[in-house]
Amino acid sequence: MTHSPRVVVLSGGLSHERDVSLRSGRRVAEALRLAQVEVTVHDVDADLIPMLSDIRPDVVWPILHGASGEDGSIRDVLELLDLAYVGTGPRSSRIAWSKPVAKSVVARAGISTPDYVTLPQSLFRELGAQAVMNAVVAKIGLPLVVKPSRGGSALGVTLVRSIAELPRAMVTCFAYGDVALLERAVTGTEVAVSVIETADGCQALPPVEIVTDGPYDYDARYNPGRTEYFAPARVTAEQAETVARTAIEAHKALGLRHISRTDLILEADGSIQFLEVNVAPGMTETSLFPQAALAGGRELPELYRSIVETARVRQDS
């Protein structure tokens, strides 16, 4: 490449995770500037398409969390404008964005994932909430985790230990979407494994272990003090290799591109359970992706520039 890439970082948007996106975008832009990359940061608004059409950046990096940033829609727009961008294409983004669909895809690829059921809010009204909840507990058991079928940052997620806690958990979940995923709770070491694709190919960064004083909810994720991170995770070399391989397998099975982060549980017997995957990992000061990169001895400016350079080579979504 003969010139430094011109990059537009997209952050903000109108989802519940707007603040996190703004912080992530600011961090990535700062790192890219340190790597001598010309960066413009832009929100998702009526000025975006005219601006992109006017300046024609070499690469767009959408760091948008929540619906429009991760459901493929903003990526569809970038495809329409024929712009190269960092991250997964629109079709695979939609698959990853739906937690039940992603779980079914990775399960077909031979990756274990906790038993689950997906239920829309309308079904609870039609069949009677208590009858449905009784059937769920009878089949999946307790404890279980209730979460919106789409969404991130653990918004609307509740750990349910008794059937008496289930109604409130459902109300909390449905505040963030009209379809709930009810999943068997698994215990063990929670790790997040980030995957990157650069000129050297597809590789996993060191796993980051997550230890909280309670549920790993929105507050625990983004406000320092609630959560302790171990980067790299306190696991054996063999376990680290296994979770890395699992994350890369999930990345490939779902058709992801450039970057992803897979959340896994390493159970006491050594088995791995897939929870979910993120096509637009958080990049804030407490986020898992940058922690993993630093634990692997990588400098963020150089790593982010290498990801941008990889995205400059246009690939099919």
Automatic annotation (TrEMBL):
Family annotation (InterPro entries) = ATP-grasp (IPR011761), ATP_grasp_subdomain_1 (IPR013815), D_ala_D_ala (IPR005905), Dala_Dala_lig_C (IPR011095), PreATP-grasp_dom_sf (IPR016185)
Q: Which gene encodes it?
A: ddl
| Entry's Gene Ontology cellular component terms | cytoplasm
State the needed cofactors, names only: Mg(2+); Mn(2+)
Q: Where is the ATP-grasp domain?
A: 103-309
Q: Which SMART domains does its entry note? A: GARS_A (SM01209)
Residues that, per the record, bind Mg(2+) 2? E276, N278
Report the co-factor binding details. Answer: Binds 2 magnesium or manganese ions per subunit.
The name this protein carries in UniProt is D-alanine--D-alanine ligase
Q: Which species expresses this protein natively?
A: Sanguibacter gelidistatuariae
Q: Where is the active site?
A: E17, S153, S287
